[in-house]
Design goal:
The structure holds two protein chains of two kinds. By secondary structure, chain A is of the alpha/beta class. Helices cover 30% and strands 18% of the residues of chain A. Chain A is globular, with a radius of gyration of 15 Å. The chains are: A alpha/beta, B alpha/beta.
Chain lengths: 164, 408
Amino acid sequence: MTPTTTAHVYPVDNIDTDRIIPGKYTKTLDMSSLASHVLEDLDPDFAKKVQAGDILVAGNNFGCGSSREQAPIAIKASGISVVVAKTFARIFYRNAINIGLPVVEVEHHNIQSGDSISVDLENGLVTNHTRSETYQATRMPQQTIDILNAGGLVDYLVKHGDYV
Amino acid sequence: MRQTISEKIISHHTDKPVRAGDIAIVHVDGVMATDATSPFAIKAFRQMGGQKLWDSEKVSLIIDHASPAPNETVANLHKLMREFSNEMGCRLYDIGEGICHQLMVENAHVKPGDLFLGADSHTPTYGALNAFGIGVGSTDLAATMLTGKTWLKVPKTIKLTVNGEMKKGVTAKDLILFLVKELGVEGANYQVVEFTGETIKQMTLASRMVLANMSSEMGAKTGLVDPTGLELWYPFEPIFADKDAEYIRELSFDVSALRPQIAKPHSPENVVAIDEVKGIKINYAFIGSCTNTRLEDLHAAAEVLKGKKLSSGVRLIIAPASKRIFNDALKDGTIEILSDAGATFITSGCGPCVGSHLGVPGDGEVVISSTNRNFQGRMGNPKALVYLGSPSVVAASALAGQIAEPEE
């Protein structure tokens, strides 16, 4: 269970990787530079609003487009602890799990910006404390839960030495 | 057990036959990463404790996304890649050699029947070759560099059957834009697209690559083209889908009346027939990317531009998909025709398509481009408007100063 934190809701479909982090900013290993440009074409104030641990909520096909891992890295580096979307594009979904950023698919919810949210990854439940509601998330494959529990794919391989 | 092409290729790479929905740990035949994805892959590889690659012959690094380096940060990332390839003994394609996917195919680093991982979302391109190419991020790639393996969920397959003879001037690009519109940008998410039908079976390798490449724009894990009629310069064993293989969805199209297609800003699914956008004034025309700058694309542009001049105030930038293609086009006179018409040639690579450098549009400028994505900001400026079309349409538009199709 994550701590209860604040939701930032963008009820938009197909938020692509260029809007998450434009290609012109991706050629770097500097996390703070990535974080400073995250989602700037969608909401120029996003990076300033986020407090450590906050939750990002979006519509369908979040993260479509490029394979750039800088997209989930930039989101994580900005302080976001979980991304909730109706669906995720497949490469983004894998990348997020691999870098240890939990991603949760929830088809039906009533989360508004500013709501207090906590997420139970193991049981796939998202709780909205502001509205006293709980939403069911899509169950993740065990392989992804194992990687997420290890803290990401780097730590998974450090621990196991190979895929198990 | 009757299988799709995906199920067959994945079964060949694991210890048991698989069906859609199974989770499998698979052996990988090769991997590649670019200057956009290698730096994080190298960092993750080191963090995983990587001392040596699982097989240095099977790892390629390509400097193509911001090539040559536009600034010191990128120059240092390129330096990191060169040092890593020296230390590990893996292949490095340095600046100007070409675009990653073209190089993998052209140099037969990926072959029919292979399961290949690329740290680039257009890795499905290899489906043109009857290979299973999966786009992944840097950390997934690092894990395969270390272990030679990856894990995946065997995807379900959508079968697209295309029949009918396309009219002159209508190309694989028009067909794939039309199909992206039909399926939508999420239409094949977590799934595979198989392309078959008489239209497909007669296509060149270059045209098949256009289709497989942009299956990524439907969200597909990969796009596999029926290998019937596929001609390669080396012998291979084609892998066909079984007649009664199970598909999640089957769609058929007759394309004999298809018009040239254009994707309007800001999504590759926002597609209309060219007739709806003809006459929109353009500032900048670009022929490039892993989608559309092979020799047949340059020939198509030269056919339109031969003996003519670009419209005043319009710039045309061309980045051939590889040095080999540039040299072939140089030898057969195509480069001269295009250059005489007013085209500017830049280093083979991805630059303008991903907004790295070498051709960023200005505020409010209108671009017609032979690339694959027109997301807002994709070419480096969120205030530009990018339309996608075939190389002939891009050339015809550069000539007319507005979105136009080649004359009959």
